[in-house]
Amino acid sequence: MAELPFLGAGVSFRPAWRWEVIRHRDDLGAVECIPEDVPGPAAVRDLGLVRDAVPVLLHGIGLSLGSAEGLDPERVRHTARVAEAVSPPWRSEHIAFTRAGGIEIGHLTPLPFTREAVATVARNVAELKRALPGLPILLENIAYPFTLPGAEMSEAEFVRAVVEEADAGLLLDLENVHANARNHRYDPIAYLETLPLERVGEVHLAGGVVHDGQYVDSHTRPVPEESWALLEWLVPRTPVRAVIIERDDDLPPFEDLLAEVTRARTILDGSR
Question: Which of 4, 28, 124, 140 is 20 to 30 Å from 242 by CA-CA measure?
Fold first, then answer.
């Protein structure tokens, strides 16, 4: 995998924060945008204005890398157009599927932890790489409420197999690790020690809520201390290139996000 530039800490991009991002550009190492949220030429031009102030990362939610029928050509063309416009240092997507049999599921759905699923993701990543020549691809571990039957390996072994077979980097979502460890009752550090940490390029942090006894990675709350502790464990062990604080709903004052960005940057700087 190509060497990735060091960006530092930043936030997920939300239109409500457009001018806050530009105004606080010196405090942000990057902003991360979802290509599916950039619907047409005008939106692409607007994102270019943001890119002129702060490096833009692209993080997809809808390519459905786990779909056996392959990638939707129009979605691939769209992500290529957005990538051409903003020149991101890398592009990321989830290890999941969002579409099956032509039906849009509407959310990230876990894959079975099988060799067949590993091969499917690797095949789709190869197609994405052909559409984005030279652009490094990072794959993200997801939070999942249940494990599909027929597993041939553990979750950590599955994530390792996917990124190695696809020859991709790892976007390590530590809040997802925290959520899964809590819900499925495993040790998050033991999980992390099983991953190919040398492939980690980016980290996500977010905050969730407890619903019906299960911890939900809702991206609606501040980052919990458990996830901060995982970041502090991780950064001395692998050269993390960026940490993105995610918030999707219940958007706080931007200053609250900047405080979390500052905390992440301090942890990163302590390992350099």
Answer: 124
Q: What is each CA distance from 236 to 158, 203, 231, 255, in whole angstroms?
A: 24, 14, 9, 28
pLDDT tens sequence across 26-84: 999 999 999 999 988 888 888 988 999 999 999 999 999 999 999 999 999 999 999 99
Point out which residues pair with 172 in neighbouring strands: 203
Q: What is the largest CA-CA distance in the chain?
A: 50
Beta strands at 214-216 and 209-211: parallel, antiparallel or unpaired: antiparallel
Amino acid identity, position 237: R
Residue 49 to residue 40: CA distance in whole angstroms: 15
Nearest to 9 by CA among 270, 251, 226: 270
Query: Structure tokens of 202?
Result: 């980016």
Residue 160 CB partners (closer than 8 Å, separation 6+): 194, 195, 196
Interatomic CA distance for residues 264 and 61, integer angstroms:
24
